[in-house]
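I am still learning, so would you mind making up any protein sequence you like and the tokens describing how it folds?
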Amino acid sequence: METNDKSHLPIIVIMLLSSALIITTNYFMTKQIVFDVQQKIIENEYEKIWWKDNYNILKEIQKDEILNYVNKLKQENPELIYKMRQNAEIKESPEKKLLSWEAFKNIKWNAYVQWNSGAAITIMEYSDMECPFCKDFHNNKTLKQFIEKSEDTNYIFKNFPIPTHKYASQMAFYAKCGEKIGGWEKYLESIDKLFLLDILSETGSITGKIRENILKAGIDEKQFDECTNDKENEILVKKEFEEWLNLWINSTPTSIIINNMNWEYISLAWVVAEDDIKLAINSLLN
């Protein structure tokens, strides 16, 4: 004899509603957790907590920022993307990579080579003057101290301002003014002065603080104020930033070590020690 017992129906309905509530709660909690994690990462960057785990997370975020930038660039100037991809490196091994002559020439275009211009090795520092990791690495002078001791190595600084850093591009533009007014020596001195600026702890006008630090490099005040509206500065910095298409830089700071004899290079991301540089150079020369 069949029975149509509906006594369990309310329990089933309650269970289904409970499951739906749990799923919904988990969904919104997950979104909140993601937001909280993002906020914490930002706090960690700004508080300069020196953890490599934090850096790796930040690097992934920067990859997304760069990807968004490239997608925008594809729409605005697809021909540029095509040309630069054509000149991109050919991978020789997991460590060494090879630049085409055209890419090698473009990277060194209008770049000031400090120390021995005819050296076998060039070390390029791609950096963002608002990035705390870049600031500490640059101010530690690891690259410069190494190159000063080496007879066959030279140095180039390259701007790589991350688009979401509010003042990074402005600092790069202003440093270019230092170059136009005082030459390459004042350009590098301007960069050093800007890396000493701790934007997050400053009060008042940040633009004013950036200007003040540039002038500490001995830049003429009147000439500097006239230069800040020069759109060529923006073009020069943008060209340096777009070099990542040849080198596939996805984080700051990044040190690019190039063998000038055969255009092979090795990319060292994050803060590197002198031993890391030596190993890379030995690999390129042997």
Notes: The chain is about 60% helix and 10% strand.
